[in-house]
Amino acid sequence: MNYIIPELDEQAGAEAATYLDTLTKPIGSLGKLEKIVIQLAEMKGQRKPVMNKLGIIVFAADHGIVEEGISAFPQQVTRQMVDNMAQGGAAINVFGRQQQAEFSLVDVGVIGNQFMEPVKNRKIRQGTQNFLQESAMTREEVERALQIGYEEALAIFDEGVDCLVVGEVGIGNTTTSSAIVASVTGLDPAELVGYGTGISPEQHVHKIEVVRKALAFHQPNAQDGYDVLMKVGGLEIAAMAGAMLAAASNRIPIILDGFISTAAACIAERIGKGAANYMLLGHQSMEPGHLKAFEYLGKEPILSLDMRLGEGTGAAVAFSIIQSAVCMIQEMATFASAGVSGKND
Q: What is the helix (H) or strand (E) element at residue 147, kind and residue range?
């Protein structure tokens, strides 16, 4: 599939910036909120951007690399967490309800039988292969995962969603994300690999070596997002990238979450150049690789709350701040309309 990403509307951004300077405040006094709303104006092509409804899609899948002992939790926790989310008990459910978000939960590769509703069953296979031994997926599986992500995003946009958070569930996916980001950026895995779900120092050293060996074995092509996903990727990460590409193609802002989300964003930008222009970074994760990944994308975090849960949680929390920026440009009076004297009037 050929993903066509529109150019940002710089004229709308310039008009938003000019209008902000007419509002009843000293110029620039609302700091990053002003920068956010200018970015949104460029994304949406609106001088006064509108943000009506948040959508959250969580993709779930298992990872064959768990066989290498890189996680503090057993693989069946992926399935248990999906069940918890389906019942509304996970952190992302709580924050999603707070934001009155449209929520979708999609299985693209969790080991085991199909889930009951409300989980959407779009399983491609029973988890990825162990990428230390062989390619994680076939090219066809990568393309299917990207397409499923794209389709699920379009489905949630049909519900009136005009801002997207893409989350994940998958034991082992910080290892996969480390391999992806190392592939794309060329950085040493030691700069990227963190403690994930809470592994021991010995497991941390082992996790770094697993990623190094896998990259040496596969030699992924940094310029080819499909190749990176095929060799060291994850089914849910590919689906996340597909959803991001759908959003960017439709000028819908994406709020990035933590390390896994930002790894998916790196892939989305590789496959559809310009996709990153439609991304805001919700927060800075405690995972060391997150900083390297978002620096590579040229992003700045809106929040820094020492979070490292994933699921889309940090992005969902950041939506409140983004809403504040939108309300500012939509509702604040201008000096002229309020009859307030401007500077040197």
A: helix 139-157
